[in-house]
Amino acid sequence: MNQHENYQKLLSIQVDNALLGTSAAVLGWDQEVMMPKGAIGWRARQLGLLAGLHHERSTTEEIGELLQACEEDQVLTGAPRSAEATNLRMWRRDYDKATRLPASLVKEIAETRSHAQSAWAKAKEENDFSVFLPFLEKNLELARREAECYGPPEGGELWDALADNYEPGTRAKDLTELFTPLRDRLTALIQEVQSKGSPPDTSFNEVPVPKPRQDKLGRLVLEAMGYDFCHGRLDESAHPFTTSFSPADVRITTRYQEGLFLDALGSTMHEGGHALYEQGLPMEHAGTPMAEAASLGIHESQSRLWENMVGHSRSFWGWCTPLVHDILGGGLTGYDAETFYKGSNRVQPSLIRVEADEATYNLHIIVRFEIELMLFRDQLQPKDLPAAWNKLYRDLLGVEVPNDSKGCLQDIHWSLGSFGYFPTYTLGNLYAAQFFAKMEEDLGPQDQAFAKGEFAPLLGWLREKIHSQGSRYFPGELCEQVTGKKLSPEPFFTYLEKKVRETNRL
Ligand code: ZN
């Protein structure tokens, strides 16, 4: 076979695997949105079979041989940002990761995680950390073994090998450099809000609004953002999420609570931001890394940008308030744009990450990041997790944790063995602010456009600079490519401080 044929053969195998993987994703979507509860047993078997087939077909020796043959060809790899070179680089990454784990470890991880998840759910419900502890210990041991199979990067540590699964190229050392100044400045700002600010009115978020009206508003906002309903749909699920089968079919879900219209709108815009990224990936490369997101952190930058930087802006509320009056009506007609704007930016330290505001959110993440590092560096024993957690919440957020259900048991991640995942949320916030600042530098301030419900210039910029790039760059490289600078906490802090001072009257 010549090199061209090798690449074509590899491409066809990989696209078939993507077709298989995304078929499983359709079943996953169905399970969350449509499936009757009683069908879970058979569905688990369907998904188990597909996952097994996918793993088997992604780790064949043939793929290894084709990869090696292609990599030796300068025509394919000479221009490192070409589609071919990008695909080969990312396929190599995935192949090495998948084949470095012995099948016995993969199986042990899968089995342990499903037990750990139910133990976690029970521990959380009964507020009993001791139910989860042995599973946390086992998950940590398995995660260490997994990380050892990948090996730490040069000059890095074990934790880095796991974080790299979510955020290619990320390291604890670099994150500590980013997060330390952020931690210090955020705690100072939040303390100032607590002691000197006056909290904005948020009573509008208690006004009951029927679900169909919230749904209508959400769809209208999504359309204005540029979400394409010809290639997507919006449904309801217990936990909002976005799933993509290809750029031609990107679905989102949201959650409505009658008294919390702002939360539903926020989560619709958040998932809408994820979905715009997926819809903007190049369809002609579907099924290959060129049509995949650069990382979870970059993904989160897109959701946060729309949810917070657009959805919590004064100009957005200038446009959206008449729609709220018109569509949601009822008791909300008495609130003006300024009230919605200020109320959506209220800063208040709390216990639960997923309910946190923009200012305190990153401290919730920093707590988890610091704890993970202590666990992996053997500076903390799993049994002492609750005490360490409660101390960090006291030190960073100034809140007392009343019990473990509202403390270290609140998130599902560690029960799934997802160590190294949490920082992607904060990276998303930092990337979002740096991208947004650069966008305004390129296009000029967008306030007037947002105030008219015009988001096309913003979306066009994101499409060109970020979405169309797929996995061409690692996240850190993409940031430098787009903004001309390394990622820094500065743009985020500048953006946040200005808004917080304004809305919490400092
Ligand atoms: Zn998200």
Question: What does the secondary structure layout of this molecule look like, with pairings?
Answer:
Elements (H helix, E strand, L loop, with lengths): L2 H31 L6 H19 L2 H11 L2 H4 L5 H18 L2 H24 L2 H22 L7 H6 L8 H25 L14 H15 L6 E5 L5 E5 L2 E6 L6 H19 L16 H15 L3 H15 L8 H7 L14 H19 L8 H13 L25 H21 L3 H5 L4 H10 L9 H9 L6 H14 L3
Parallel strand pairs: 1-3
Antiparallel strand pairs: 2-3
Helix pairs in contact: 1-2, 1-3, 3-5, 6-7, 9-15, 9-21, 10-11, 10-13, 11-12, 12-17, 13-14, 15-16, 15-17, 17-21
Zinc ion (ZN) binds next to α11 and α12.
The residue ranges in which pLDDT falls below 50 over 5 or more consecutive positions are none
Mean pLDDT: 95
Task: Provide a count of the helices.
Answer: 21
Number of domains: 2
Calculate Rg over CA atoms: 23 Å
Which strand order do you get reading across the main beta sheet? 1-3-2
What is the highest CATH level, the class of the largest domain? Mainly Alpha
Total strand count, please?
A: 3
Based on Cα principal axes, name the global outline. Answer: globular
In helices, the fraction of residues equals 55-70%
Question: Which fold does the CATH topology of the largest domain refer to?
Answer: Neurolysin, domain 3
Estimated structural class: mainly alpha
Q: What does the main sheet amount to?
A: 3 strands, mixed
CATH level-two architecture of the largest domain? Orthogonal Bundle
Through-space gap between termini: 70 Å
Bound ligands, each once: zinc ion
Taken in chain order, the helices and strands follow as HHHHHHHHHHEEEHHHHHHHHHHH
Q: Please state roughly what percent of the residues sit in beta strands, choosing from under 5%, 5-15%, 15-25%, 25-35%, 35-45% or over 45%.
A: under 5%
